[in-house]
Amino acid sequence: MSSKDEPNRLKRTRKVKILVTLGPASQSPEMIAKLLLAGADAFRLNMSHGDHATHAATVAAIRKVEQQYERPIAILCDLQGPKLRVGTFRDGEAVIRHGAHFTLDSDPAPGDDTRVCLPHPELFPILAKGERLLIDDGRIRLRVLRAGKDKVVCTAEVGGVISDRKGVNVPDVVIPVPALTQKDRRDLAFAIEHKADWIGLSFVQRPEDVAEARRLMGGYGALMAKIEKPSAVKHIDEIIELSDGIMVARGDLGVELDPEQVPPLQKRLVEAARRTGKPVVVATQMLESMIERPVPTRAEVSDVANAVYDGADAVMLSAETAAGSWPEEAVTIMDRIAGQVEGDDTYFKRIHIAETPPDATTADALALSSARIADTLPIEGIIVFTGSGSTARRVARERPRVPMLVLTPSNQTARRVALLWGAHAVITRDIGSFEGMIAKGKRMALRHGFGQAGSRLITLAGVPFGTPGSTNLIHVVTLTGSELKAQAK
């Protein structure tokens, strides 16, 4: 039997989505299909690695699998962003002693255990006494003693081995560089040309960074702001307002913040995004031990579970699937963790601790009503007719107990909502009447496993049909035996 004869094969019972990073270990068409069947809902291309030819082949492979299984799949192209790095060393590396003085300067000569080049002249004017420089993901921690126009003298609060071109984090200041480098602009053009559904914007520090990316996107695609800088946290409401979703990039946050600050911040960021009804992805180091091992640690399992309990729209795998030895197992285990959490009797109580008040619009009021009706009546699912996906986002914000069947004529919309909590998208022709809407909603619900004879479902749509932002209709339908027979023919 072909995949086209099995439309229910990829209907997820879980609400949270799984975003999987592809790389050398996983970008073949065969492995992409395995990851989809194991539980992946969307795929991430890390533009920091690989060339455009390789990424183009990966996009084509994803679209081939998508067509094979008739399952809309989101593709996220994650831009690299600016990378601050030290220069090189005379012997390839040096040792900075604890408590010793160490200088970063503009001299391109190879460094030693007393100094190294910092080839970023924009940093020297903004650094001041007492500020921190973190090197190699915080393994080396320097504190500024004095700063000049072409050098910074520091004391090593935490020393160690430093080697060529290690990364530098400067958590205490806003760095005067744009979020998009020339490489990012080329990668963004590639992503748009190859119809990526989401663009991940790195190194966001302020709302203006998001606005600039939006301008360059020219109205195409959805923009996901990666929250990895403390300065972005200070402007989080404005950044969310300008974005289509956010990613809680805990790896970089964990470098620039004290580690104990990250868990409560993660919860605040998830809640802030949920209030707006925009997707939020929790990312990095979720099952990191599975890069080399076939099973995760108990701490990693708890970490994934906590993100699901927080009500995140999606959880992400990075190197575990891009370069690890066990990509399919990592997706399978993340799927099992999510399923176990969502089966917990306290799950819905926990995710509704966060308040997500609706906006004062008809569409928001109806979305809230659909969730309340599903709590009151034995409802099997919520059918949402949408062109842009905005109604689906409103329903997802309410985190209803029942699954959501999103019916849309737009490939682009169907793929974007692949990262939306609880949404199962199906591409179908537009409808032109109330009767046509009801009939199509019932047919699609039966075809995709959203009920059986006697099941009741909620339908949300807008009249006049095909008008964006016109959601103004809610209707409860009951599936009948005659419809089930007609569907079987």
DSSP summary, beta strand count: 21
Q: Low-confidence runs (pLDDT<50, min 5 residues)?
A: 1-8
Shape: elongated
Q: Main sheet, how many strands, which sense, barrel?
A: 8 strands, parallel, barrel
Strand order of the largest sheet: 1-2-3-12-13-14-15-16
Q: Count helical runs.
A: 17
Keyphrases for this structure?
Pyruvate Kinase, Chain: A, domain 1, 17 helices, 489 residues, alpha/beta, M1 Pyruvate Kinase, Domain 3
What does this molecule look like?
- Residues 1-8 have low confidence and may be disordered.
- This protein has helices spanning 29-38, 52-69, 182-193, 207-217, 230-234, 236-242, 250-256, 262-276, 298-309, 319-322, 327-342, 347-351, 362-376, 390-397, 411-416, 434-447, 481-488, and strands at 17-22, 42-46, 74-78, 93-96, 101-105, 115-117, 132-135, 140-147, 151-158, 160-163, 168-169, 198-201, 222-227, 245-249, 280-283, 314-317, 379-385, 404-408, 423-427, 456-462, 471-478.
- The chain has 3 domains: 3-81 and 177-343, Phosphoenolpyruvate-binding domains (TIM Barrel, Alpha-Beta Barrel), CATH 3.20.20.60; 93-169, M1 Pyruvate Kinase, Domain 3, CATH 2.40.33; 362-488, Pyruvate Kinase, Chain: A, domain 1.
- The strands form 4 sheets. It has an 8-stranded parallel beta barrel, surrounded by 9 helices.
- The protein has 489 residues and is of the alpha/beta class.
